[in-house]
Design goal:
By secondary structure, this protein is an alpha/beta fold. It contains seven helices and 15 strands. Strand 6 and strand 7 form a beta hairpin.
């Protein structure tokens, strides 16, 4: 694809596996760039490739970490066919690479101010053929393969709103039947992820499993106590309740 003709309406594919985040990003794009047509919205890399083949978009917004094929792998396969903007959590190496290259990025969680900058850059780049990203993508792929990736925030529905809660705010997670309770200093919300899924996606140096139903933020713990029955409990800095520690995890606190 050479350059976007001045009278053409630009088209985009949006590939993001977190539905609430994709909703938010699409709403922001529609507000900031009303002329942009989002011709397909998909949630994995294989579907993203199929959407690019089918719709021949001018732009592809690609989540770096999505199922089946990640965003970098998809970008490799569509190199030269459309402009690319990666959707990424904060990662200084990736952002430095994007700033130095002919590709843009959308930082999670998206904000109108940052996305407005991205939109202006993309509009400018649409006047030129897509850049050769092969060297940049090779560097990003190597970095992605060696750097652990952990959840940076949680999306939670509150009525008609979507709240984005950074993991630093979260004091603990506790399973609640088929949902998981997310607890901060001033709120409690339910999400669809299980404790098992969260334990695999969160930074293990920050969130410790203290019970089969509970993950606790180490930075939120004030002290470790024993009750009158000898049971170990965690007293929190910003909440009045205590968290029970099951026998299988007591060893984590013996040196505290």
């Amino acid at each position: 694809m050479s350059s976007l003709e001045s009278n053409r309406v630009p088209a985009a594919v949006l590939a993001e596996d977190e539905v609430l985040l994709a909703d938010e990003l699409e709403d922001l794009l529609r507000a900031l760039w009303p002329q942009l047509r989002i011709v397909s919205r998909v949630c994995d890399g294989v579907a993203a490739l199929a959407a690019v083949d089918s719709h021949l978009p001018d732009l592809a917004f690609l989540d770096i970490h999505m199922p089946r094929l990640n965003g970098i792998e998809v970008a490799r396969q569509i190199a030269g066919r459309c402009h690319v903007a990666f959707i990424t959590s904060y990662d200084q190496y990736a952002i430095d690479a994007f700033e130095a290259g002919a590709v843009d990025y959308v930082l999670k969680p998206p904000t109108a101010a940052r996305l407005a900058t991205t939109v202006q850059r993309l509009k400018s780049r649409l006047q030129h053929p897509p850049a050769d990203l092969r060297r940049l993508l090779k560097d990003l792929a190597q970095s992605s393969a060696t750097t652990p990736r952990y959840l940076q925030w949680i999306n939670a529905s509150q009525g008609t709103a979507v709240r984005l809660i950074t993991v630093d705010e979260i004091l603990y997670f506790r399973s609640d039947q088929k949902y998981t309770l997310v607890v901060t200093s001033d709120t409690e919300v339910l999400i669809n992820k299980t404790i098992k899924e969260l334990s695999e996606e969160l930074d293990p140096t920050m969130f410790w499993q203290v019970h089969r139903s509970t993950l606790a933020n180490v930075h939120a713990i004030d002290s470790v106590i024993r009750d009158d029955h000898g049971n170990v409990k965690l007293r929190l800095k910003q909440r009045p309740e205590t968290l029970s520690v099951s026998e299988a995890y007591v060893h984590l606190f013996r040196r505290m």
